[in-house]
Amino acid sequence: MNISLFQILAALLMLAAAFALVVAYRKYLAAGSERRMRSMLEAVGLDSKVVSSPDTDAIVREIRQRCQSCSAEDVCEHWLAGRKGGDNSFCPNAGVFDELRKTRGAPT
Asked: What is the pTM of this model?
């Protein structure tokens, strides 16, 4: 059975479209994670400039990675919106945020 050039091109186009959708979805997830991370920093009393500070680069990379793989996104969204009370103990970065707040202090 011969596969026509048209069928090969159609298959390649569908493969490229699928790849583009996966890349776009991952960017969408990363953007949401970044927004939640910055909002959480501010909610716990840290200056969001800590994200761009060179002396916290390694720490922020770890925070970002934990945030991107977090399974509590819905709880986080509700907590940040004020629809869920209590502390942020659900957050895998809560301890890191506490330590940063102790060493970096609150924003001025």
From this structure: 0.70
